[in-house]
Specification:
By secondary structure, this protein is of the alpha/beta class. Among the domains are: 165 residues, Rossmann fold; 72 residues, no CATH class. 30% of the residues lie in helices and 18% in strands. The protein is built from 14 helices and 17 strands. It has a 6-stranded mixed beta sheet, sandwiched between helices. Strands 2-8-7-4 form a 4-stranded antiparallel beta sheet, with no helix packed on it. The protein has a 4-stranded parallel beta sheet with strand order 11-10-9-12, sandwiched between helices. The longest helix has 22 residues. The protein is globular and about 65 Å long. The chain binds iron/sulfur cluster (2 copies). One iron/sulfur cluster binds next to helix 13 and helix 14.
Amino acid sequence: MFKLGHFSGGVHPKSNKNTHFYPTRRLDDFPVVRIPMSMHIGPPCTCIVKPGDHVLVGQVIGEADTPMAVPIHSSVSGTVKSTQREVASNGRSMTVVTIESDGQHTMHPDIRPPVVENRDDFIRALRESGLVGLGGAGFPTHMKMKPPPGKEPDVLVINAAECEPYITADFRQCAEHPDEIIDGIMKVMHYMDIPLAQVGIEKNKPLAADVLEYELVKLNLSSNLQPNIKIQRLPTRYPQGAEKMLIYALTGRKVPTGGLPHDAHVLVLNVSTVRFISKYLKTGIPLIRKRVTLDGSAIQVPCNVNVPIGAPIPDVVEAAGGLHPGTKDGKVKVIMGGSMMGVALDRLEATIIKHNNAILVFGEKEADIPDETQCIRCSRCVTSCPMHLMPTMLDNMARNKDIDGLNHYHVMDCIECGSCTYVCPAKRFLVQSIRNGKSYVRQAMAKEGTKK
Ligand code: SF4
Ligand code: SF4
């Protein structure tokens, strides 16, 4: 039976929310930014600047040519130094625009609030803002606002769960901008004609829930408004913030295999996404900055920073206080994202991108990965899987490239949460192996498609 906030499986990793209570630091002075032409799911943008061009803050430098793309804007004013093809940190080859900042932060004169009177204007404005889901996946937000006929959402789910260890960027967003979060939610409800919004926050962040509730009370007292927004305190359990878990935990609805939230008549947005929407509609400033949690044992001053998109990660780390002296020349492990679902970077010169919410840097001890041993058939991976999969079977099949078996055991339902890897006493690389399995299935499907 459905019980608010509950789902089966999941794990309880140590939360390590070391940066909860420190206000976000705004860092501006980066001599150079390097902006990749793709920070979204979908084809890269077409670069429309060339070396020597002078650009201003908020100026479009990458044009979106397909519906699944969003434009890319300059986050600084300065001179374009190069536009080179590079393999980005996500493994995709794309043009990266390097801009030398003039330190003036001059805003482009065309930046002004968009004129929004109806849903079409709203969707167009979101696209022009360059907005992608700020919770981690990089899905263009305007595409979420166009559900297929018959699949209109009747619930707006706001993801403020932030269940990943270390990351507190959304929590700081709630603590610092509750008014804009509530305003953003009301704007989405208005233009998308959604009667109810549910905000999911894990119980270990009571302040975030309190400030949002306080904001609703203030709104009622000052304007006599009572928007149908419910702030829901959810059990602290990883991966409470995964889209499918959160929808089920808040509404009792299940997204079918291979489906999207609109199949359950739900629209899911991250709490930072709605705050951006509120700010953008008031100012017209596109998505050019990002709040990111810096943490990990090698970071000297764990904190949240608000930095221009494209800022080089080593410069951000240095500006925020640098690495512990002992780790500077030693081995470190850099993760983009949280410790459960983040991606280890193979190069330090990667830059802050739109859907980056954390940079974790660990010292030598944590950087060492223990060797895998034989599976002891304890089934812990099975009981921890929130998607009711059999990770140990999927691991075997992925290693044997058994496409039929992978399909039979629903490999594509894996949300790559890492719970199975976390609990495995044999230290099997389960999630990595399952990820490979998913790519084999995708390759096989693509091959099938070209045969037909
Ligand atoms: S199989 Fe996938 S969904 Fe299940 S626990 Fe492992 S990573 Fe998570
Ligand atoms: S948790 Fe590890 S050891 Fe236990 S069954 Fe799963 S893969 Fe095997």
